[in-house]
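Re: the request from the purification team.
They wanted to know what the chain is likely to look like in 3D before they choose a buffer screen. I agreed to run a prediction and write the result into the notebook, where they can find it.
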Amino acid sequence: MQSVAPPTYANRILAALPPSELALFRPHLTRTRVVINQTLHEPGERLDQVFFFDSGFASVVAIADDAGTTVEVGLIGWDGMVGMSLVLNPASIAFNRTMVQMSGIVHRMPAAVLTRSLDQAPVLRSLLLDMLEIMYAQASQTAACNSRHTLAQRCARWLLLAHDRVNGDELYLTQEFLSVMLAVRRAGVTMAVQALHAAGLVQSGRGRIIVQDRAGLEAASCRCYARVCDFSDAVHVSRSAT
């Protein structure tokens, strides 16, 4: 009888787990496709599922007012897990909305499986705590960025964050959706993208933006992007040294 190789994972957290820990969760992981605009968690909902992205990514958006205006405070893709607050509180409820920003493949698992097994999975617990720390830094820096920097800089920063979480250079999204994520009028996003296009940094078309000059896009962004990246690298280096 020919043996079947165990599945491999592009998700950083699942890929980093030792076999003994992965064996706790593999039977409960369901591979599925998620699509753009799909809501994974709504504010006030009990977190009953967690999602590990292999491809695509989700946005964590905060509700800014009674009219339902939203602003993005974080991105989660292959680098993390949607539902990370469960590592702190097994009865955690969602404070923000988490929605799919780019379609892709995820591994879904019941939250109860995660929380009841964390004591037997110290590596997973440590990885999730690291990711919580990085997400806090990302949200904090986003708040500072939104209050201090130009729309063109913020747009370049967001495109870099998205580019980090896709395979290739194409980002399938509309400028209308990008305006919602940046909490600005669509006309402002159109002008910002046009400026990046004119500089040869991106190519924009119907429903997609193609990154053409990654280094130039980093130069056009504010320091906020590099600051969070540097912190993330420091967290991972610190973890590997322990």
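For the purification team: The chain is about 45% helix and 20% strand.
Please add any questions underneath this entry.
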